[in-house]
């Protein structure tokens, strides 16, 4: 927590470098052993030049969301990192009433759909989509179940496409099975099967 507070205080004292410091904060937050509730409370209350930290963070995400096509073409790592970052914020941040930020739900679904449709990076994009659905799928579906239905239909179509790689199909099959399991952890043997299969395909 001391490291997180150090970064936040740096933002307060040097507002010209807020964007970079926001990214550093979230990277540190992901590695923090503190509870998500505590991190959410910090983000809700902290101010930088009279503006809530949470608002600064949402504005930064909005900027990257509007230029995501450009990012996908020019900087794939930044594009994938942005989507991961967006999902992490959704998973951590809560309103004053303790509710997830629904304003992030549609952008996340849009990004996940675009990952599935990516023709350039394919397996990396599907891996990113798979990982984010495993971590935020339940919460996303609780907010907008009809969009999850559409997303999983697209995942099934992609999985059944003969031109897709074995790795892509394995990643998508695991997500579909996890959804069928109501986003609860799969049985140990099933998880081991997917781990072995994916390790073999990425070796």
UniProtKB/TrEMBL annotation:
One of its GO terms (molecular function) is translation activator activity. It is found in: Cytoplasm. The keyword Cytoplasm applies. Keywords: Cytoplasm, Translation regulation. GO terms for biological process: regulation of translational initiation. Residues 5-182 form the MIF4G domain. Pfam families: MIF4G. One of its GO terms (cellular component) is cytosol. InterPro entries: ARM-type_fold (IPR016024), MIF4G-like_typ-3 (IPR003890), mRNA_TranslReg/HistoneTransl (IPR051367). This is MIF4G domain-containing protein. The lineage of its organism: Eukaryota, Metazoa, Chordata, Craniata, Vertebrata.
